[in-house]
Amino acid sequence: MRVGVAADHGGFELKEYLKRALKESGFEIVDFGAHSFVPADDYPDMVVPLAEAVARGEVERGIAVCGSGVGACVAANKIPGVRGSMVADMFSAHQGVEDDDMNVLCLGGRVLGNALALDLARAFLAARYLGGERHRRRLAKIAALEIRGVK
Question: Which one, of 141, 52, 66, 55, lies nearest residue 106 by Cα?
């Protein structure tokens, strides 16, 4: 699986750890930055290109990391076709994919340890969308909102 990763300064160390560990597990990793630790960088500069690549299908899934995970999640979800969520528990890491077709995992580099973050990433990447009728119906409603925009 081809996986994109992105982080700002708050998630840089965790992104680098995940990148190495996931490569060792056989994933193809595309790094959208930051490529070095820059204390004044801004998460949208890395997360938006990652989210766009997910939406275009250039990478199958994305992992976005900032200090808390919140900013990365907000930025990723501004891109139509992206369904990102900040996750800190194993159930949500796989259930978000299975029921909601989550395609971007958002993590907090200042709130999660490396081991838990890697477990969450592996659960996210191993999960598959189940595509039940109720899930398809709900996702169609969300897609319609992206097209409709703000009234």
Answer: 66
